[in-house]
Specification:
- By secondary structure, this protein is α+β, with helices and mostly antiparallel strands.
- It has 3 helices and 3 strands; from the N terminus they run H-H-H-E-E-E.
- The two termini are about 20 Å apart.
């Protein structure tokens, strides 16, 4: 539930919480819940992995999400990504151009 709430907050912050995006989020949460049940020690990674799952699924249907809003008009359109790659234990959104941390997951 924590993972769902954090990713949903970021979807809403970027006005991307459409019915389709929330459905993708629900699917990712369901899949990662099973994953966490199989590997309980991996629970600290679930939120970041859910965010990555949603990001990957939305790329195919709605385009890049979330876009970086901090680099200014001169920079080409680019996305943020979750760091660390495994998704935890404290996932943050990082600008793919500058490499700078932008916000913790759930804090966009």
């Amino acid at each position: 539930m924590n993972a769902r709430a954090r990713v949903l907050a970021d979807l809403e912050a970027r006005r991307h919480a459409t019915a389709a995006a929330v459905s993708v989020l629900e699917d990712a949460c369901s899949s990662r819940q099973w994953w966490a049940e199989q590997w309980p020690q991996g629970e600290v990674y679930v939120a970041g992995l859910v965010a990555q799952d949603v990001q990957d699924a939305l790329l195919e249907t709605a385009g890049r999400w979330p876009l970086c809003l901090g680099c200014g008009d001169d920079a080409p359109e680019h996305a943020l990504y979750i760091q660390p790659d495994l998704g935890g234990p404290d996932p943050v959104w990082v600008c793919e151009e500058s490499g700078e941390a932008v916000a913790p997951l759930g804090g966009l």
